Amino acid sequence: MKVGVAVPQMATEYGPGTTVSWARAIDDGPFSSVSAGERVTFSNPEMVATLAACAAVTERVRVFANLWVLPQHPMAMVAQQIGTLDQLSHGRLDVAVGVGARDDDYRALGAEVRNRHARLDAQVAELRSLLAGEPPFDGADPVGPAVVQPGGPQILAGAVGPKAMRRAAQWADGISGFSIAADPAEIGKVNALAETCWQDAGRAGAPRKVNGTFVAVGVPDSVETLHAFTARYLSFLGPKLAEAIAATARTSSPDALRAALDGAEEAGCDEMIVVPATTDLRCLDVVADVVASRG
């Protein structure tokens, strides 16, 4: 199983030099990808610009947009951004897409929340057409730049439940899930559902299966750091629920991280994404040691 690392864009200490220093260190480590996600009404830097910087200063790791909330955006712009990122990374781009969970982001961007699941299905089809070089309308030129990877990057689905998974099986190359508790049973259930839905849809081959979890290791007060980060990230759910879910986050020691990675591999993951709860690079050093020790 591969292990990727997200830049800690949701941590409160994220600053002007964090993206470049973390991306370079991830590229130097035993990791498969560097990733960033999309969130608008929060303290994080914007996803596409962040990934562009990561692409420019790395040479080896995949660059992973995890997760792009497609119903918030026009597809011609997304296609141009994907083409640009694929070009900057020399064909190292992967993309996960979904509908998101934060209505405030939709409102902030002036996007419609209703029918977003059905719109996602149609948008992926439109996006693939644009990435294949089809013009956005009759008489228009294609959206550029052209992608480096033939056919464009892999598109994974941020699907978890049965209904969303069945829809994703019609168009996705795989799935990208998340488990705050890094629970192998939870991860395995999602992976098994994906396998079943892909088979039911008559898809050739198995879906790529990616998952992730929040991590705080190698830093003082790692338990408190992980809990505070998770509760703050989930604050849009309300303080009571955010605190309850944050209490399930346990990946705050090297042993816990090793167990989480072992469990994810046993659950059938192809890649596990470590999402640091701190900008302290000592966290990445410990993550690197754990990953290297697994062979």
Folded structure, characterized:
The protein has 295 residues and is an alpha/beta fold. It contains eleven helices and eight strands. The chain has an eight-stranded parallel β-barrel with strand order 1-2-3-4-5-6-7-8, surrounded by six helices. Helix 8 runs antiparallel to helix 9. The protein starts with a strand and ends with a helix. The relative contact order is 0.15. GO terms for molecular function: alkanesulfonate monooxygenase activity.
> Which outline best applies?
globular
Instruction: Please write the CATH class name.
Output: Alpha Beta
Strand and helix order: EHEHEHEHHEHEHEHHHEH
For the record, the count of structural domains works out to 1
Distance between the termini: 10 Å
Helix content: 40-55%
Identify the CATH architecture: Alpha-Beta Barrel
Structural class: alpha/beta
| Proportion of residues in β-strands | 5-15%
Mean pLDDT: 97
**Cα radius of gyration in angstroms:** 18 Å
The parts where pLDDT drops under 50 for at least 5 residues are: none
